[in-house]
Amino acid sequence: MDPAQLQSFFNITAAALLSAAALGGALLLAGELRVRAQRGARLQNGPGVPRSEGQLAGQVLAGMRRLGQSAAVQDPTKVSDVRMRLTRAGFFGRDAAIIYLGARAAALAVATLGTISVLPFAFGGAHGMVAVLLASLLAGAAVLGPDQVLRMRQTEREREYADGFPDLLDLLVASVEAGLSLDAGVTRVTDEMARPYPHLTVHLRLLTLELRAGKARKEAWLAFADRLGIDDARALATMLRQAEEMGTSLGETLSVFSADMRAKRMLRAEEKALALPAKLTVPLILFIFPVLIGVLLLPAIVRLKQALGGG
Question: What's the whole-model pTM score?
Answer without folding.
Answer: 0.64
